[in-house]
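Regression test case RT-17, inverse folding.

Input:
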C-alpha cells in the first residue's frame, strides 16, 4: 500500500468525525457569526471544481445528521429522505455535475488491478446498481464520475493492491 493510499484510508476511516467537525463549524459560522448561506453554497460548489462532490459526505451538517439517522435505523424511508434532501440542495447539484470535470479523480491502474471486485463491493453506488456501475470493468459506467458519487473514498481505501488512486487527472481521464 502506497503512502498516499494509507493517508486516504485514514481519512476515509475518520470521515464522519471530519464531517461532524466541519459541519458543526459551518452551523456555528452561520448561526453565531452570521456568515451568509450563499458563501457556503458558493464555496461548497467551488470545491467541486477541484475535488468533485466532496461537500455532501465530508462537510455537510445535514448530511451528517441524515447519515446518522440511516445508521441508527437502516430502513428505506431514511434512505429516501437522504436522497430527497439532496434533490433540494444546490451544492449537491453543482458539485455532483462537476464530478465529471474535477481536477482530482479516482483513477484505476489496470496493470495492477486483479479484478477482485472488492472496490465495487465497498461502493454504495455499485451496490445499488450492479448492472450499471463498476470501478474496474472497462465496459461499465464509472461510479466515481457519476452525479451521485460523494467521494467517500472507500473504494480507494479498500483496494488491496493500491490500484485505485485519487489524484489530479489531466487530461480528464479515469479508466
Ligand atoms: S479492489 Fe483494486 S484490485 Fe480489486 S478490482 Fe478493484 S481496483 Fe482492481
Ligand atoms: S468514492 Fe468510490 S466508493 Fe465512494 S461513492 Fe465514489 S466511487 Fe463509490
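Golden output:
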Amino acid at each position: 500500500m502506497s503512502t498516499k493510499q494509507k493517508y486516504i484510508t485514514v481519512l476515509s476511516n475518520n470521515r464522519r468525525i471530519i464531517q461532524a467537525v466541519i459541519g458543526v463549524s459551518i452551523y456555528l459560522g452561520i448561526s453565531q457569526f452570521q456568515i451568509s448561506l450563499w458563501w457556503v453554497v458558493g464555496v461548497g460548489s467551488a470545491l467541486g471544481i477541484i475535488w468533485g462532490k466532496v461537500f455532501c459526505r465530508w462537510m455537510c451538517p445535514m448530511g451528517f445528521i441524515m447519515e446518522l439517522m440511516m445508521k441508527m435505523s437502516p430502513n428505506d424511508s431514511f434512505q429516501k429522505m437522504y436522497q430527497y434532501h439532496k434533490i433540494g440542495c444546490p451544492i449537491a447539484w453543482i458539485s455532483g455535475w462537476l464530478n465529471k470535470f474535477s481536477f482530482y479523480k479516482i483513477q484505476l491502474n489496470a496493470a495492477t488491478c486483479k479484478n477482485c471486485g472488492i472496490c465495487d463491493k465497498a461502493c454504495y453506488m455499485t451496490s445499488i446498481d450492479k448492472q450499471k456501475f463498476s470501478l474496474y470493468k472497462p465496459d461499465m459506467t464509472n461510479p466515481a464520475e457519476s452525479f451521485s458519487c460523494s467521494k467517500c473514498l472507500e473504494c480507494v481505501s479498500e483496494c488491496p493492491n493500491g490500484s485505485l488512486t485519487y489524484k489530479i487527472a489531466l487530461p480528464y481521464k479515469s479508466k
